[in-house]
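Most newcomers find our protein records easier to grasp once they have seen one. A learned vocabulary of local backbone shapes supplies the integers on the structure line. Here is such a record, shown just as it appears in the course material:
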Amino acid sequence: MTKILLILIIGLVFEAVGVVFLSAGLKQIGELQQVTVAEISRMVARGAANRNILAGVFFEAIFFGCLIYLLSQRDVSLIWPLTSLGFVVTAIAARFFLHEEISPARWAGVGLIVVGAALVSYSEKAKPKPVELPSTSQTPTAAR
């Protein structure tokens, strides 16, 4: 479980970094002024050329790779709820790197996420371990 948690934490850090870059990049390219094909195309082109957005997509792809690995190793009912801890890491990153003000109510919500993740993690520890059956391989017997 230690290896799984380590990969999860590394993945969540990459996710938080990716979200911070994406947010910064989206603020740089501005808002969509009107919903037309030309305006959407212009915004997509600006986004595709923005270094922050490209870095954000890169870091999110690394997170996705970690997530794929984790889901291949453990139950989705364990891994997916634990990815909610990404909200904690992202809130901290937004506070320190984007200088966002986070209200006490939001921090309380982040605290509830931590409690929920702890319950999910505890349920994995409390899950009955599969019983290992003794090996059925038999030693060759002498011919009679």
About this structure: The chain has one domain: 2-126.
